[in-house]
Amino acid sequence: MAESTNPGRRTGVWKGIRRGAAQVDAATPADRDRAVDALRALAILGVVLGHWLVTALVADDGGTGLRTASPLRHLPWLAPISWVFQTLAVFFLVGGHVATRGYLSARRRGATYGQWLRSRLSRLFKPVVAVLTLWTVASGLLLLSGTDPGTVHTLLKLALSPLWFLLVFAALTAATPLLLRLHPLWPLAVVLHVDLLRFGLGGQDRLGWVNLAAGWLVPFTLGAAWTRGELERRRAGWILLTGGTAATAALIAWAGYPASMVGVPGAGVSNLNPPTLAAVTFGLAQCGLALLLREPLRRALRRPLLWAAVALLNLSAMTIFLWHQTAMMATTATSLTAGHLPGLHTVPDDLVWVAARVLWLPVFTLALALCWTAFRGYEQEPRRPRGRASRVIRSRQAVHGTEAKAQHHV
């Protein structure tokens, strides 16, 4: 009897999913640009998968300590992985577009700059409280239990590393009124001159930190140009894609820039920390591709199921972004009792490690789902009472709330 009822239950669940997706689709305003949400979702997934694939926590000989390593150091020919999953430029492109569009809309409604900024930043940083609280308590307990301070430092650095992005993004968001008309070539010129001084004329390495703002200003101001309607033609996307690709290839081939677009432990130069000219030109190529994908994404997202998945992912954007490293580290640390497992605690120096790491991705996803269940309340509104009317309200919140919350995330 149980076997005969299972197909019916599955059919009922599937119908419920489709019905919920249809509600979300019906609640979506006709003028909403769904491609914006899709690009944000792709950027989030790129960051998460990228970190999970190229970040390793290797157990020391004693089996109790952990240190960071990367397969990109031992297998440099895997650098193209970083080209696929280093999607921060798309974050800033979408963020600049949303921030400038939102500011102009708020100004038309008569809202003050302070009201607009408080609304954005409060939703941006509220989920951070949970991460900081948990890791403050966890690090204290680890030290009291005798855990090696180096291991605690390693874990804290990985867990809190996403926060640098939020600080830079918050600063650029606060400066949105000043950036409405800034041409992307101006911050690009700053990055060029900083790298010329740093690498060409033997300047101090700390000069590179100027690029932490200037480098991400380039895609952010491209987002502002998108808002102004200057990037609507496909020609703009092709120019950015081909020009950025050619410039990046030239910088890697002839100017000595690393091929990896993420930081590699032990490497002399990182393209990302702080951003280099190669990272910025690579970001231009990414932005060009994102612009070219807008229309195909709009067509694809007419499908209710796909659109509902994108909308819900956007509602959890900050939770996923802030907790994905914790999910990976929790899996790694708790499984140490089982020994040094391949793809998890071993040195990432061969294809066996790469294959094993891919097999660990579903476990990381499960751990992240647990984090999402525990901490999504810091990002999403409290649940409403159940009922047909409340389900319709929640479906509308899933759409309208995406812009009110998730757009604050990038």
Question: Can I get a quick summary?
Answer:
With 410 residues, this protein is mostly helical.
Describe the structure.
The protein is mainly alpha-helical. It has one domain. The protein has helices spanning 2-27, 34-54, 71-74, 80-85, 88-109, 113-144, 149-160, 162-174, 176-179, 185-200, 211-227, 234-254, 277-300, 304-315, 317-334, 351-375, 388-404; strands at residues 56-59, 66-69. The chain has a two-stranded antiparallel sheet. The longest helix is centred in the first third of the chain and has 32 residues, at 113-144. Residues 385-398 and 400-410 have low confidence and may be disordered.
State the main characteristics.
mainly alpha; two-stranded antiparallel ribbon; single chain; 71% helix; 410 residues; 17 helices
SSE topology:
Elements (H helix, E strand, L loop, with lengths): L1 H26 L6 H21 L1 E4 L6 E4 L1 H4 L5 H6 L2 H22 L3 H32 L4 H12 L1 H13 L1 H4 L5 H16 L10 H17 L6 H21 L22 H24 L3 H12 L1 H18 L16 H25 L12 H17 L6
Antiparallel strand pairs: 1-2
Helix pairs in contact: 1-14, 1-17, 2-5, 2-13, 2-14, 2-15, 5-11, 5-13, 6-7, 6-8, 6-15, 7-15, 10-11, 11-13, 12-13, 14-17, 15-16
